[in-house]
Amino acid sequence: MLKRVCWTALAAASLASGIAAAQTFPSRTIHLVSGVTPGSASDTTARIVAEKLQASLGQPVIVENKLGVGGLIGAAYVAKADPDGHVISIYTSAFTVAPLLSPGPLDPKELTPVATLGTVPTVLVVSTAKSYKTVADLVAAAKAKAGAVVATTAGIGSSTHMNLERFRIAAGIEVLHVPMKGAPDALTEVLTGRADFYFALPFQVGPQVKEGKLRALAVGSPKRSALFPDVPTTLEAGYPNSDYNFWIGALVASRTPRDIVLRLNKEFNAAVNSPEVRDQEGVRVERPADQGGGHQSQLERTAGAAAWHTSRSAKSSPGKKSMAKPKKTAEPKIIRPDDIDPHHDWKRPLQAPGHTQVDFEERINFRRLHDYRLARVRAALAASGLGALLSFDQHNIRYTTSTVIGEWARDKLTRYSLLTGNGDPYIWDFGSAAKHHRLYAPWLHVDHCKAGLLGLRGAVGGDITLFREAATEIKAILDAEGVGDMPLGLDVVEPPMLFELQKLGIEVRDGQQVMLQAREVKNLDELTLLNMASAMVDGVYQDIAEALKPGVKESEIVALATSRLYQMGSDCVEAINSISGERCSPHPHNFTDRLIRPGDQAFFDIIQSFMGYRTCYYRTFNVGRATAPQRTAYRKAREWMDKAIDLLKPGISSDKIARAFPEAKEIGFASEMEAFGLNFCHGLGLGLHERPLISRLTSFKEPIELKAGMVFAVETYCPASDGISAARIEEEVILTPEGAKIISLYPAEELPIANPYRS
């Protein structure tokens, strides 16, 4: 009896306390907490509603931004605040998904809903510099090459992310997802052409669409947007279940008295239905009933998208029902926006600084370089459908792990690296090199630097034990990191290694294209290194011009250039072509001990690297004098060069560039296959030939859209009418938002005459 009296008294006291709190509410400043950046939908809505609430509640109402983990940091702050209604979370439909993607900061039960403030349509936008005119164009491009199309969002778990996933799953495409810090950053990526599309809010992109900077392809919400009445929905465009209901709501700590929750519900509803809020210029927030759906329906609509993102396990075999419990998978590695940001600053001149690091100016930020390269690989891997990438290509290993040993290892296929979607890089190397990495590569885990040896291209012998043990170790890592049942991407390999991986049930797919996609856009540090490498060759060509005289051997020019490059800091002089006189046509791609003679036309190619980043840089000279056919050949080669460079702009398709080059028959070859490698462009970076490669042989079949931050070597070749001479020119260019910037600066506008004779 006593217990019953006590509990009754306690309940009565609690009720009285709640009623009292409601009667005195609000008693101080009210804080609307937004978990996203200013300019985002919920933040903008909060600021519009705050003014009306302040008038009706009679207390100051301020908006605070507490960013992080898809809005969860701000929501968790509200959940831990005093449950008296003075601290309110303004959240979006991401609330139904973010706790699933990032468990820990917030248990959804810690918050209780107050009111749905409205829904905001989304609109799929692309830059008008891109070739996409319809949603079908975008989907076709994504299906043509998985991961080639780049989508950006306001962050992992954000509503824009779930909108993307709903659309991606419905369309059956794979894209490269680049999450940003917020909506403004995401939109900037599309405007600059670094990303292909984004699901924005109409009020965010209305001005840019009107100005012709952006093109609205579709509305991602169930119904059309009042701001874009002529733009169809993704449902109308033919993609069932692609729609996403982007709602904005208010929530408070779960222990807030019900009377306060009801009071806030009344005030929020009055505010959002007032003409001042509903008809705010430039912002259209629909009333809750206009678009339909609420918290529960939204959870159901996004469950599939969230499940896809959190699970990296493979599908069961067709026709079989698995009775086993789902495997636990490690969390996918989050790509931090700052890591994958290339940090381009096109307003400033690209520098070619001294080679020594100094304390008074930033030259190369190597940690930023490491983080960017790894983030690019992670993003490409995430969009590929692969569980991991196993690399034997030395350029891929360096790009992923930022390790390197002697150039002799380039073609031995015995070093290898592994990166899973859920883990950090592993490197297998000669034992002493692995020990060195543990000491001097702090960006790698110590236990991920392993001693390894495979076949050394067969030199080890026919015993496959080393391959079997390596494959078993790799399979164990794949299983431990939750991707053991997913396909493995592989670049180049000795056949026994491939066979042993397959014996363990691993599905092996082409990983080289994934890696080349990751490497195609260079960040600021890569561009600087490429410019520094080119500056070294500028100087070598000055030395060659002075040394180029009758009686000098082609091989002596090679020796001079090699010595000079190593003196300047080259880490690898990979090859130097030195070709003169009658050897110029056809191009033999080598050098000999031929003596250079008066009037010879001679061309050279310098392929070397600085900090791994390569040059491919041709120049043609005449020795002492030049004939009319030699000058004509040079002029044609220069014209073809200039025409191609003028076309190099972001958003242009590579097939258009290829048409600027002469057909094979114009330079004396029967087919484009025979003429390949003479008039073309190729990407340049850690590798001599990277994506995109542009030629009449390849680009009409598989065109690639150009992007700012790509680097090209543009090569032309024209044989002279004398039957022996030929001109060969090559410029290295960086693709900026405005077009191509040449970084190979030794003069080549006109045919250089080395040591000219006086007439």
Structure described in brief:
The chain has 759 residues and is α/β, with parallel strands linked by helices. It has 4 domains: 157 residues, Bordetella uptake gene, domain 1 (D-Maltodextrin-Binding Protein, domain 2); 97 residues, D-Maltodextrin-Binding Protein, domain 2; 154 residues, 3-Layer(aba) Sandwich (Creatine Amidinohydrolase, Chain A, domain 1), CATH 3.40.350; 231 residues, Creatinase/methionine aminopeptidase superfamily (Creatine Amidinohydrolase, Alpha-Beta Complex), CATH 3.90.230.10.
How are the SSEs ordered, and which strands pair?
Elements lengths: L1 H23 L5 E5 L6 H17 L3 E5 L6 H8 L7 E6 L5 H4 L9 E9 L3 E5 L7 H10 L5 E4 L5 H13 L4 E4 L3 H9 L6 E3 L1 H9 L3 E6 L27 E7 L4 H15 L2 H4 L9 H4 L3 H16 L26 H4 L25 H17 L5 E4 L2 H8 L14 E5 L5 E4 L1 H10 L8 E3 L13 H16 L7 E3 L4 H9 L4 E3 L1 H8 L4 H24 L6 H15 L3 E9 L20 E10 L2 E2 L2 E7 L4 H20 L6 H5 L13 H4 L4 E4 L6 E5 L16 E9 L6 E11 L2 E4 L10 E2 L5
Parallel strand pairs: 1-2, 1-3, 6-7, 11-15, 13-14, 15-16, 20-26
Antiparallel strand pairs: 3-10, 4-10, 5-8, 5-9, 11-12, 12-13, 17-18, 18-19, 18-20, 21-22, 21-23, 23-24, 24-25
Briefly note the structural class of the backbone: alpha/beta
**CATH domain class of the largest domain:** Alpha Beta
DSSP helix fraction: 25-40%
Strand content: 15-25%
Major beta sheet, strand line-up? 14-13-12-11-15-16
Number of helices: 24
CATH topology of the largest domain: Creatine Amidinohydrolase
